[in-house]
Amino acid sequence: MNTTEYKWITPFNIIAGIILAFGVVATVMRFGFGLSAVTNLDDNNPWGIWISFDLLCGVALAAGGYVTTSAIYLFGYKKYQAAVRPALLTAFLGYAFVVVALHFDVGRPWRLPYPLFVSQGPTSVLFEIGLCVFLYLTVLFIEFTPAAFEWLGMKKARNIVHKATIALTIMGVVLSTMHQSSLGALYLIVPSKVHPLWYSDYLPVFFFVSSTVAGLSMVIFEGSISHKFIHEKMSDEYLGIHDTFVFSFARAASFVLLAYFVIKVIGVAADNNWHYLATGYGSWFLVEMLGFVLLPCMLYGIAAREKNMALAKWTSLLAVLGIVVNRFNVSLVAFNYKLDSADRYFPSFWEIVVSVFVVTLLILTFRWISRRMAIFSEHPDFQGDH
Amino acid sequence: MLRRTFLGLLGATAAGLAAGKPAAAAANTHFGGYPDAKGVLFDGTRCIGCRKCEGKCNEVNELKAPEKPFDDLTVLDEKRRTNQYAYTVVNKYEVEGAGSVFRKIQCNHCMEPACASACFVSAFKKEPSGAVSYNESVCVGCRYCMVACPFYVPAYSYDDPITPKVIKCTLCDPLIASGKRTIPGCVEACPKEALVYGKRDELLKIANERIHRNPDRYVDHIYGETEMGGTNWLYLSGVPFDEIGLDTHLGTTPAPKFTKGALGAVAMVVGIWPVLLGGIYGVTKVTRNEATKARMDAVADAIATTKAEDAATLKSAMDKAAADKAATVEREVKKALAEAAKAQEAAEGEEG
Amino acid sequence: MEYYVLQDFLTFTKGTVYLLMGAGLVAFVIWWNFLFSREPENHKNVK
What we know:
The complex is a heterotrimer of chains A (386), B (352) and C (47).
Chain A: H1 11-33, H2 49-61, H3 64-74, H4 84-105, H5 114-117, H6 125-152, H7 155-163, H8 165-185, H9 203-229, H10 236-270, H11 280-306, H12 309-333, H13 349-370
Helix pairs in contact in A: 1-13, 2-4, 2-12, 2-13, 3-4, 3-8, 3-9, 4-6, 4-13, 6-7, 6-8, 8-9, 9-10, 9-12, 10-11, 10-12, 11-12
Chain B: H1 6-18, E1 38-43, H2 52-60, E2 89-95, E3 99-105, H3 114-118, E4 124-126, E5 132-134, H4 144-148, E6 155-156, E7 166-167, H5 173-177, H6 185-189, E8 195-199, H7 200-213, E9 233-236, H8 255-351
Chain C: H1 6-36, H2 41-44
């Protein structure tokens, strides 16, 4: 533990404090007076940014967990072992706070266990997502427990979980494949409401493939942020592999982005949607495809080849933004495209407050945990035991 | 309530199996809907936009009375949709050559409801009566049904913090089932017989007959016959349907089919991914093991070679040292002997 | 049980499929352990 006295009055803490205060107000309004008190949701637009950002982007950006564990445990990148825990913690907290955010969005949050335990709706894509997120959150929790057990000094429990690593990793990839793709499949049921350029039979595949990009990019991005702020907690081992690790992931992300670009073009061709490219929606589609898919693909490639760390990090931010743009496009911009502009949705101030509030809670929890448990380092009692 | 859920269906099927009946239909079976399902036929050429159906609906379903009374027809000047206080609304459309045309909208009670397909707690169900029912007691309020509905029908009570719920037309099914009514309120209230309640099959016959008898009066299409796999609420119109706010690009595919393929793929992921990933893990492990073994062999080799070299060096050094030592000893002995001989010679000389 | 509505049919079949998916995942773990249970220790777990 840090022996120097902790400084409470920092710019970060002040901003976080203000956000938390606003968040508490929004929470009281939401649960005291209903959804209409804080949201711009209406009967035509039942899903706003709490779904688009908190759920769709939240889950995609938490893909770092399965991407990193599968790369290290299944695909043979053992040497990057030190990167597992930060990725797992980010993923676990990501999913946990997706669930927190859902409590704001659904009408009766105390019924969230209903689809699993009370009345199953197996034909619903959302049922599949609910089941997978519930199971995957459990898997992530178990995968993360060794860090907590080490912190608490519970050797036996830690070693039992440790033995199940491979099974848990495979389970994690299976569940992630299922629900990452199903988030895209949510919109399959409304071909009449989603603009043809974003609607495709391949939506689940698009969402899954782009989720791996989101996962790879978030690991790079989150690593560079942590590098700056939690540097003193990082082991030499973590710092030693960090650079080559970033370039490996950048190269992987670049290659996957190319694949994503190719299948997106195939999607346009499969439904013969070329003529829409000449419309206003088409221009925006091209911006997404060229600026947020092809450009990060190129930049990642250059960064990995030239070993340009700064470029790799900035590109990770661009790629993450690209995923956010894509999820917003499918769920908000392209959704309800036939309605008059007066009937379209735009988030309210308080909706944005709640989304920012949830992200802030996530960051604060991440900071709290990574300063106490062995996340960016190995616990002294378990060195070399992978 | 149990029969609504999957587990309930499972139980029912088990019972069916026990009774020796065929258990379930094959994948290529056509599902024609319940044979006695009822519905309503709306004839747009007869509707005069009096809003009496709206008023009656409000009354029989005990909804909150609106600010403007139902005989205030200025309400028709703006486009409205169903909401938490209105299961049904009538809209006015100005159509070139036909003047003001009215169209009633409410839940169309799809034969294959998108809301039911989308609901993750099976709160919606297609009833044998023809109605699509909603079970508030399990509803979580995710509002995916509202996203899924191609007709923009379900509404939500967003201003209710404790018991918000989805709101839509019930086809007066609970009231009819309990004997309080015989036909839906809106149908009863219509002064122009623009609404007919009956079995869907018969409504289709009536509609076809009307088109057949007055081909000039009607567009040759029954909206709802095939749209989204068919609906129990059917529409006739004298003007193109898209001019009275009905989406004519919905296609004929029933909603559950849109997600059937993706959900099927999910099951294949569960079946195949563990084998694929286990295989990849196995391959990388074998490769790593071989690499490790090769490295260890190389190290062992190197150590053995070094040891042998060391031994050889040591031996030669020892030999050399031994040789040196022997030579020195010999030299010293010779020297000593020579000295001794000298001394003896000298001694002998002194004596002699 | 006879089905008139595709939705009800799918509710039943998809529900069954979900149960089988769970059973399949359990089976994979058990069988994997069986397959490797007689392999020498160093083959099972090399770091």
